[in-house]
Amino acid sequence: MHKLAVVFALLGGALDAQNIKPVPLVGSLTTFSTQIIPLVTIGDGWSQRFVVQNTDDTFPSTLTIKFFTKDGTPMLVSIIGAGPAPSASAFTFNLQAGKSVAFDTVVSNAPLQIGWAYLGSSAGSGNFFGQTIFRKSTPGLPDFMCSMVFGGLGFQQLSTFFDNTSGNITAMGIVTSIQCGVLSCADTVPLVVTVRDISGAVVSQKIVNQKLGTLNWINLGNDYPETIGKLGTFEAKVLNAYSTTLTGVSLEWSGNGAFTIVTPFEK
């Protein structure tokens, strides 16, 4: 009986510890089989590097990256060294266990085009991790660069910090990251958009209807003038649970043209 009491006491303690163990409710790193690049920039001196690593010790993966315009239609992207037909809207590649691959878009001075991309596993069970590096080349200036990890899928909301003080400009991208062809991109979903100041107080709130599979690119100062001169957070929440998934990106520019990624988080 004494031994059983000890066993039950240990088991109960373990269960209690398990019950109070913190559970992360938000995150920005993912090795899921579906990952999103919430911003792709083509033209106006921009180039972009995509880095993918198979983090599995044993299993390979066959991965496909699909590019979309901000309106959800296939976007042609030129990849350096991709073969005789380097411009395509989808590229498939094999990644052995523990291996990495990096590929770059061709620098273009054509008018800027923005979009987003979907990376998924089409074969194999290896886990993978991705990140992207943005580079902006302007004659007479050093190249500006920043990076972000590939996004996950937010089933409830996404949030990001913004700073529209001292001449800073913040832009925010919201991707309703269900790819076209899975569900109709003619369908729209309502999102509750909330702007809060740095103390958490609500500055404004409204419902925005966004088509599935699209990127909604927002200049906070223009589209939400109540953010001018403020620090705070910008949140987008799915009004009807699981009607879409959200992935986001935020870019902050200083007055001299330099910029950085402000990592959002999905919940």
Element layout with pairings:
Layout: H1 2-20, E1 34-42, E2 46-54, E3 61-69, E4 77-78, E5 87-88, E6 90-95, E7 100-104, E8 113-124, E9 128-136, E10 144-149, E11 157-163, E12 169-176, E13 188-197, E14 202-211, E15 215-219, H2 220-223, E16 231-238, E17 246-253, E18 259-261, E19 265-266
Antiparallel strand pairs: 1-8, 2-7, 2-9, 3-6, 3-8, 4-5, 9-10, 11-16, 11-19, 12-15, 12-17, 13-14, 13-16, 17-18
Q: Short description, anyone?
A:
With 267 residues, this protein is mainly beta. It has helices spanning 2-20, 220-223; strands at residues 34-42, 46-54, 61-69, 77-78, 87-88, 90-95, 100-104, 113-124, 128-136, 144-149, 157-163, 169-176, 188-197, 202-211, 215-219, 231-238, 246-253, 259-261, 265-266. The strands form five sheets. It has a five-stranded antiparallel β-sheet, with no helix packed on it. It has a four-stranded antiparallel β-sheet with strand order 1-8-3-6, with no helix packed on it.
Please give a structural write-up:
This protein is mainly beta and 267 residues long. The chain folds into two domains: 123 residues, Hypothetical Protein Tm1070, Chain: A, CATH 2.60.290.11; 114 residues, Sandwich (Hypothetical Protein Tm1070, Chain: A), CATH 2.60.290. It is 9% helix and 49% strand. A five-stranded antiparallel sheet has the order 14-13-16-11-19, with no helix packed on it. The chain has a four-stranded antiparallel sheet with strand order 1-8-3-6, with no helix packed on it. 30% of the residues are buried. The N terminus is likely disordered.
